[in-house]
Amino acid sequence: MFTIEHEFDATVITLIDDAAAHRCEDVTINAFDDCVTLEQLDPQSDRIQKITLSLAQVKDIAAALNLPEGAYQRPKP
User: What is the pTM of this model?
Assistant: First the structure.
């Protein structure tokens, strides 16, 4: 399950791990004009862990989802 919200400066997607036998914490994805952040609560430290990806990294992830094993380089625009 997931939710999508459009805020002033970002689109916020929350992934809810509702089908897992051992439920993981929700993941929040914030899509800004210049980067994407992923946030998840670390239950051991009770702190939010955050990863920031450039838009080029996000494009690489999207391309990788449809490719077999290997090393690839996206063509420059």
Answer: 0.79
Please state the φ and ψ torsions of residue 32, each to the nearest 5 degrees. -100, 180
Q: Is the pLDDT of residue 72 over 70?
A: yes
Structure-derived torsion over alpha carbons of residues 34, 54, 32, 19, reported in degrees to the nearest 10 = 170
Give first-to-last CA distance, the chain, whole Å: 34
Q: What's the chain's average pLDDT?
A: 88
Residue with tokens 């999508």: 4
User: Which one-letter DSSP state was computed for residue 21?
Assistant: S
What is residue 76's three-state secondary structure?
A: coil
3-state class of 59 per DSSP?
helix
